[in-house]
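Weekly modeling sync, notes
Attendees: S.R. (lead), two postdocs, one rotation student

Agenda item 3: backlog of single-chain predictions. S.R. asked that every request posted to the team notebook include the full sequence so nobody has to chase files. The rotation student volunteered to paste the first one in as an example of the format we agreed on. Action items at the bottom.

Example entry:
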Amino acid sequence: MRGRGRMHSMIYDINTTRALGLIITLLALPVLVAACSWQVPADPGLNYTQRVRTPAVTSTPAPTSTTAVASQPVRSAAQDARARALYMDHCTRCHAPISPNSLPAGQWPMYVQRYAPRAQLYGANRALVLAWLQANAQ
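Predicted structure, as returned to the notebook:
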């Protein structure tokens, strides 16, 4: 009789331990999932431009023969160097540097909009990096 009682007690302890482990796992799982999820912070630069109303331009001057009309704004070598340095400082935190000519110029805005907040790249710095990427694209 004694042996049978001890065996029953061991089985009861094993089942209790398994049930307790399952309960702890089920309770801890949502906490772990919530801790591992990572939200990209809102882009303060984009939020600012959407909140601030800029005055409407009533008229634009017509280009004259002395006014140069260019599709790309004129950038200095210093701006290019700064944009490249910003790209290397911010974007390479998460990945190896990607050559700007690996994508067409039209695709870079989508990637910059998506990943710039994660790289903490906002406002004028973000615009400078995007212009550099597009100027050096395919």
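Discussion: group reviewed the output briefly. The mean pLDDT is 76.
Action items: rotation student to repeat for the remaining queue; S.R. to check formatting next week.
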